[in-house]
Write a structure and sequence with these properties.
Layout lengths: L7 H6 L5 E3 L2 E4 L2 E2 L2 H25 L7 H5 L7 H13 L1 H11 L4 H4 L2 H12 L9 H7 L2 H15 L17 E5 L6 H9 L5 E2 L6 E4 L9 H4 L3 E2 L3 H10 L6 E4 L6 H9 L5 E6 L2 H14 L4 E5 L15 E6 L28 H22 L6 E6 L8 H13 L3 E3 L20 E2 L10 E6 L8 H6 L7 H27 L1
Parallel strand pairs: 8-9, 8-11, 9-10, 11-12
Antiparallel strand pairs: 1-2, 2-3, 4-6, 4-7, 5-6, 12-15, 13-15, 14-15
The structure holds S-adenosylmethionine.
């Protein structure tokens, strides 16, 4: 694709970053402190994230969450950038109002409106002392106009303080830390973290630790070196449900940023192979970074469309499990994604035609991907998961594929039986499906599992210990053999019917 040529004025508006040469840190000849320099870059990085988020929101596209954009490898000053994006979003309607009423933005700066929002936030509510840069200079010269527009807004709305214009949101959510057992065992990580934080083991997922709400581990050396991953409970349930054994070959069909990929690798003790497939180029880089960080040497990353992986290809003839966590609306993690801060949340609860169209398109892809997964001949388990609360992306996908799955020898398998919240009763076997509750559990996930080749013990304990079944080995081997013959015959029949 050809790049659009920048107009003269856009080029003029593009700023030169501060130099850092021979020990001199300067911007337009002025010496900068480290704080000024780092604040300058944070504002530009925050503006870039804000642009992606706002553009996605206006088109109702499922872009990555603010957290995943900020905590990706390309952002340097992650904590400051994240705080700046969130605070600017919280104040966005006020900032827009103030900028509109004061009429300070000329054409040149209007084209960098996200940077203008960020700088305005810092001038009115943030850290004014570190304001260096052309955009900052431009708005600082208009500070009085901005302040009086804000004062008029408060009078108009009949409030005394800005805080009264912001809707509070309670996100008292426990923080979860998944121990990467490829690098450290759970007990050692727990002992080490307990020196600084209140941490306990999760009651269900053996490699998961729980911290109180508000615990911030982003800058902890364990996080930076991949000893632990900041991964929620529901997200950690997915690979644990699949329960791959060491030595297996497994496909992670839609893998980036790779949290579940490296969880699979850890559950397999680094033995066997995880084929992690990702379509998006930018997210593929992120996936590679996660895999490297985790030290997951048994992961083979692929930049490809999962639908292009042929089930007949001998490369995949030994694949025994597939984790399918396809693109979804992300509606179950809206609180985590801070969607309530986005402009479109004003219409929350109403589904317009655009939303329905988008959900339908997502569901069409989800069905296609699940059908594709069901076609791999040696696969015994498939876990399908979303972070959506919508039936159309969850139970409806399962229900529409159930007849095909049955014809391939699959059955719905109970996912984590000890979990109380099950699927919506709109499909046969809904009690085997798992949902987490966006209010009670603070995130809405959905997990379904298909299994074939006899009854296996899918309790998490057994999955984590690498047991296969409680039945005697010989019986198991025999029934597996019988099933494999049956499945091959059935599959050949099905495939030739399809080709015809
Ligand atoms: C929900 S995210 C996966 C999150 C990931 N499982 C994790 O836990 O870190 C879905 C991913 O699937 C990718 N994707 C979408 N369509 C795909 C396709 N046809 N083949 C492979 N990847 C695809 C998206 O780019 C996105 O990165």
């Amino acid at each position: 694709m050809r790049r659009r040529k920048k107009s003269k004025s856009e080029n003029a508006a593009a700023e030169k970053p501060p130099n850092k040469s021979a020990g001199t840190k300067s911007l337009a000849g002025k010496r900068l402190t480290n704080a000024q320099r780092s604040a300058y870059f944070s504002r530009r990085e925050a503006a870039k994230v804000l642009r992606t988020v706002l553009q996605g929101d206006s088109r109702r596209l499922a872009v990555a969450s603010i957290k995943s954009l900020v905590y990706g490898p390309s952002v340097r000053n992650k904590r400051a950038t994240y705080a700046l994006v969130c605070e600017t979003l919280k104040h966005l309607s006020i900032i827009k109002d103030v900028l509109g009423a004061s009429n300070v933005l000329t054409g040149k700066w209007k084209r960098q409106e996200e940077l203008m929002y960020i700088v305005t936030y810092d001038i009115l509510f943030g850290q004014e002392d570190a304001l260096v840069g052309d955009a900052e200079k431009f708005l600082l010269l208009r500070k009085v106009a901005l302040q009086s527009a804000l004062a008029r807004l408060l009078v108009r709305r009949g409030v005394k303080k800005v805080n009264e214009l912001i809707t509070p949101h309670d996100s008292q959510k426990c923080r979860y830390v998944r121990v990467n057992t490829l690098k450290m065992d759970v007990d050692s990580a727990l002992i080490e973290l307990m020196k600084q934080y209140k941490v306990v083991k999760d009651d269900m997922i053996p490699d998961l630790l729980v911290c109180p709400p508000g615990t911030d581990l982003h800058d902890h050396p364990f996080v930076k070196t991949g000893i632990v991953f900041l991964q929620g409970k529901a997200s950690s349930m997915v690979a644990a449900s699949l329960g791959p054994k060491p030595g297996w070959e497994v496909i992670d069909a839609c893998a980036a940023p790779g949290n579940k990929t490296v969880h699979l690798a850890a559950l397999m003790n680094g033995k066997g192979k995880v084929i992690a497939c990702e379509l998006d180029k930018g997210r593929f880089k992120y996936l590679k970074h996660t895999v490297e960080l985790a030290g997951a040497t048994n992961v083979h990353v692929m930049h490809d469309d999962f639908l292009n992986l042929s089930p007949e290809d001998p490369l995949y003839s030994k694949v025994r499990a597939i984790l399918l966590d396809p693109s979804c609306s992300g509606s179950g993690t809206a609180l985590d994604r801070l969607d309530h801060l986005l402009p479109s949340s004003a219409n929350a609860g109403t589904h317009d035609a655009l939303d329905m169209d988008r959900l339908q398109k997502l569901a069409n892809f989800q069905k296609k991907a699940l059908e594709h997964a069901l076609r791999f001949p040696a696969v015994e388990r498939i876990v399908y998961s979303t972070c959506s609360i919508h039936q159309i992306e969850n139970e409806d996908v399962i229900s529409s594929l159930l007849p095909f799955a049955t014809s391939c020898g699959f059955e719905l398998e109970m996912v984590l039986p000890q979990w109380p919240h099950r699927g919506l009763p709109v499909v046969a076997g809904s009690e085997k499906l798992l949902r987490t509750d966006p209010v009670k559990d603070k995130e809405g996930f959905f997990i379904a599992m298909f299994a074939r080749a006899g009854k296996e013990d899918h309790s998490v304990k057994s999955q984590m210990e690498g047991n296969t079944s409680s039945r005697p080995r010989r019986t198991r081997r025999r029934s597996n053999l019988f099933f494999k013959m049956f499945r091959t015959m059935r599959y050949a029949k099905l495939y030739s019917a399809k080709k015809r």
